[in-house]
Amino acid sequence: VFDYKIIHLATHADVGEDTRPWIAFRDDKLSLEELYATKNQAELVVLSACNTSQGELRTGEGLMSLARGFFSSGTQSVVATLWNANDRSTEAIMVDFYKQLKKGRTRDEALQYAKQQYLRSRSGSARSPYYWSSIILIGDAGQLDAPVTGIPNYYIIIGTGLVLLFAGFWVIRRYLRS
């Protein structure tokens, strides 16, 4: 999983009573200590989970958070949360965040725009900072080097080629029948 340029983890995470952060996977939890032992080349790690920038505050070191663990393993930037994440608002913001990255915005501009779009599309208590302001960007705020695409270009080229090939066979077949 750590060979990708963008890693998005939408799962459950917490700091725990002993202030040792972890992130949940299907059958296990990944701890901060295990993250320190990994290496990755990710330009961006998105932690769509609760409390991913929280942890024990160590004098002279800072917060021992999941975000810190990903930086330690080699990532350039992390999108993390300051408190419990609301699933619906986080999803809406993340969808817009990736749309803006795809348009070529820098990481910080993309997150800012996504939050502003969320606020424009909501009313009443859904506009409370609780729903949108816990999502933060830490680290490199610049543009991604890796392209953010929905469908890789080679799929589009292969798909177009197959459509043209079948269309050509269909035209030839109709021509030979007439």
Explain this structure to me?
The structure is a single chain. This protein is an alpha/beta fold and 178 residues long. It has two domains: 6-147, Rossmann fold; 151-178. The protein is 40% helix and 19% strand. It has helices at 32-36, 66-72, 87-102, 107-120, 129-132, 153-177; strands at 6-10, 13-14, 22-24, 29-31, 44-48, 56-58, 62-64, 77-81, 135-139. The protein has a four-stranded mixed β-sheet with strand order 1-5-8-9, with helices on both faces. The termini are far apart. The mean pLDDT is 87.
Q: Indicate the overall shape.
A: elongated
Total helices: the number is 6
Question: What fraction of the residues are assigned to beta strands by DSSP?
Answer: 15-25%
Query: CATH topology of the largest domain, anyone?
Result: Rossmann fold
Oligomer: single chain
Number-wise, the strands total: 9
Task: Provide the descriptors you would attach to this structure in a database record.
178 residues, alpha/beta, Rossmann fold, 4-stranded mixed sheet, 3-stranded antiparallel sheet, 6 helices, elongated
Describe the SSE topology:
Layout: E1 6-10, E2 13-14, E3 22-24, E4 29-31, H1 32-36, E5 44-48, E6 56-58, E7 62-64, H2 66-72, E8 77-81, H3 87-102, H4 107-120, H5 129-132, E9 135-139, H6 153-177
Parallel strand pairs: 1-5, 5-8
Antiparallel strand pairs: 2-3, 3-4, 6-7, 8-9
Helix pairs in contact: 3-4
Put the structure in a nutshell.
The protein is α/β, with parallel strands linked by helices and 178 residues long. It is built from six helices and nine strands, in the order E-E-E-E-H-E-E-E-H-E-H-H-H-E-H.
